[in-house]
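It is worth pausing here to work through a concrete case rather than discussing structure prediction in the abstract. The textbook approach is simple: state the sequence, then state the predicted structure, then interpret. We follow exactly that order.
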Amino acid sequence: MTSRHDLHTQLERGVASLGLQLPAGAVERLLDYQALLARWNATYNLTAIRDPMEMVSRHLVDSLAILPYVQGQTLADLGTGPGLPGIPLAIAAPQRQVLLVDSNGKKVRFLREAIRSLKLDNVRAVQSRVEDVEGQFDCITARAFASLADMLAWGGHLMTREGVWLAMKGKHPEDELAGVPPGFEVRAIHTLAVPDVGGERHLVVLGRAGC
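Step two, the predicted structure:
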């Protein structure tokens, strides 16, 4: 049986290896989120990952790996599923307003329960298709959500003129780069070293062309 102490140690080690400084109490809130996700997952099958230690590395630490690239005061996490990377990023930066978007009703019910029970005052969740979401955001995040072409076609309207789009990918998305639609450009592709997560991890940073 994995103890909370074990999970705490694993998470702190991951945060340290990423070189991050989190606000006071953030590690405990992240573990509260993981515990809630594990409890709901037993009934609602929100994620294929069931091992608690693996949840810490593949969900929490993996989400936090992009924190240095997040900018601005508003963030929309598209196709967030059970809140990834949106909830870990919101806990790590409570001054930023975060919108979680998913079309799956049971996942959004979980998100609303997580927001309520974890007292995430800077977070709200909507059940919607990405193309129907309104507003504009300084930063957009999407984790294994769709191809770069589809992401920007559906949600490009949500990014402010100076905003950034952070697309989390596994292997280097060489075959997707040519599909980036007119009006947008790839600013950078970062290789992420995420502790205890096997396989490649990449972050594609996109913005509006000419901005």
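Step three, interpretation. Residues 4-208 form a domain with the Rossmann fold fold (CATH 3.40.50.150). Helices lie at 4-17, 26-44, 52-64, 86-92, 105-117, 148-155.
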